[in-house]
Amino acid sequence: MSLIMLKNLLLSPFLSFIHKDFHEIVKRMTLVDNFLFLIVHFVDKLNLWHRLPVFFGLLYLGARRRLHQQYNLINVGRTPTGVRSNPADFPYRTADGKYNDPFNEGAGSEFSFFGRNMMPVDQHEKLKKPDPMVVATKLLARRKFVDTGKQFNMIAASWIQFMVHDWIDHLEDTQQIELRAPKEVASECPLKSFKFNKTKETPTGFYEIKTGYLNRRTPWWDGSVIYGNNAEVLEKVRTFRDGKLKLSENGLIQQDENGKIISGDVRNTWAGLLLLQALFVQEHNVVCDVLKKEYPELEDEDLYRHARLVTSAVIAKVHTIDWTVELLKTDTMLAGMRANWYGLLGKKFKDTFGHVNVGGSVFSGFVGMKKPENHGVPYSLTEEFVTVYRMHQLLPDKLQLRNIDVTPGPNKSLPLTNEIPMEELIGGKGKENLSRIGFTKQMVSMGHQACGALDLWNYPVWMRDLVAQDVDGNDRQDHIDLASLEIYRDRERSVPRYNDFRRGMLQIPISKWEDLTDNEEAIETLREVYDDDVEELDLLVGLMAEKKIEGFAISETAFFIFLVMAARRLEADRFFTSNYNEETYTKKGLEWVNTTESLKDVLNRHYPEMAEKWMNSSSAFSVWDSSPEPHNPIPLYFRVPKQ
């Protein structure tokens, strides 16, 4: 009896249990993956994983991630064969992201292809079905601002834009498209019509996925948001003295003689993003000072290269074990994200004994693995990843400025002085207002303000009449309706709609609107907009409508993309794996990364009075006057979520 026949024989009793939409892919799986799928599918049917004790929740997530690594990483474009670069020739992050992968010099570089987590679904016959402006008006546009309570603040909202500007930006075509508001919603649309550039479609030279889209940014976790994506931008931001980057005397991003900001990414900025760019330029420059003192023989170029490695790793670590933990505020995710960096044995064990290379990343995490792992698919970020990071609902209508000149109240709370409309904090106006407000007041104010919830009817209306910018940070003539444009972009780029997306991620699709939400008004509106066809539901709308896991600021559907891609950003990068060592980073540089645990640590280095005076919360990403996390005597892996 052949192995295939044996597998089919063992699988046949379970086919009636497995959802019919997964029969085909299950037949293609290995016997081990069949077993893992059955476990995952069983738990999914009971909607159980987030209610399991922490250790068992981690086992579920590990099994699910393994399946996604096998079946949800799809290359776009040709993969070179027989070409190999020597990592020793490039012991630093290159300006354009090349030569990170020794077997594929272009992987993760500027203008490389976006990959896929599932096969594209052509929607060019349905680009306006239903009309994007109808969807935006009836299901997305903010009615009344809904926030996240004390869980997530405006620094957290700014942080994810900081990351997106590090990772992703589609190359655009010169051809323009125009969307016009249908009569039924025209009176409610800030713009009756708007024009925008198509995403540039590029032949891949490959038979399976014939065309794809190019990423202007380097998708590695390389700090390109402050360093740039190519040598030309890098030259603009460097001082060429002691390895440092340009920074104004007031601690903010420097401007050129024309008033343009000098930074790695200057497109579609706002005051919150500029603030984080400035903070990590400060971080880079302090690392240069420390390294120069420790290793006086190092020249400008070496200081820059080492400081960039260190600063990029600090950014990645803050995102992994601080920002994401606040976004997904459960004990299971606290354990899971720390395991990504430190492994199941934890920080103390790793600091004492080093990385345990038995079991891959299980015991000591992805960081410091013996060699990078891309699961046979060249590294990229994906179109689906872009979609789940559409989080503009996080932004409020106004920024609340706090009085930092008075004695803080209970829980270090601060009185409100005034509110600034968000329109005054974007683009050129944002740069000017930030200079007037100053670094400290802006950071403290964002820390004390909750950001918006990722829900239906919470998309900022001011972003439906938005001045967009080109790649050089120049305002474009045509205003855009960003809410409508985001619906259009997913369809244009052949990202599957909600139900097909869930099938692609091995999640049970919804069969009725009640599977998605309990909100009766939402169900009624969804039926109206989508002609009562759940298969037509746009992914972005589904992600906002979906019932959320307790403690999650995002939907479970979005989270499963995070699950595979958050690991991939670390495990596929040799500077977090085989080159995460003292030889590459220097001993002092590696120590700097290893002793940084949070954004709070970074702020304490540069503004030591800030947390002490104005931050009561445990994390800089929670609202600052919230209570710190209470001590829990139960070991993390043995905790049970509240039912």
TrEMBL record:
Signal peptide (UniProt feature, chain positions): none
Any one Pfam family match given in the protein's UniProt record, by short name: An_peroxidase
Chain segments annotated as coiled-coil in the UniProt record: none
GO biological process, alphabetically ordered: fatty acid biosynthetic process; oxylipin biosynthetic process; response to oxidative stress
Protein name as catalogued: Alpha-dioxygenase 1
Organism: Anisodus tanguticus
InterPro entries named among the record's database cross-references: A_dioxygenase, Haem_peroxidase_animal, Haem_peroxidase_sf, Haem_peroxidase_sf_animal, Oxylipin_biosynth_metab
Lineage: superkingdom: Eukaryota
Keyword 4Fe-4S (UniProt): no
One function term, GO molecular function aspect: peroxidase activity
Keyword terms, alphabetized: Dioxygenase, Fatty acid biosynthesis, Fatty acid metabolism, Heme, Iron, Lipid biosynthesis, Lipid metabolism, Metal-binding, Oxidoreductase, Oxylipin biosynthesis, Peroxidase
Chain positions recorded as heme b binding sites: H392
PROSITE patterns: PEROXIDASE_3
Record bears the keyword rRNA-binding: no
Required co-factors: heme b
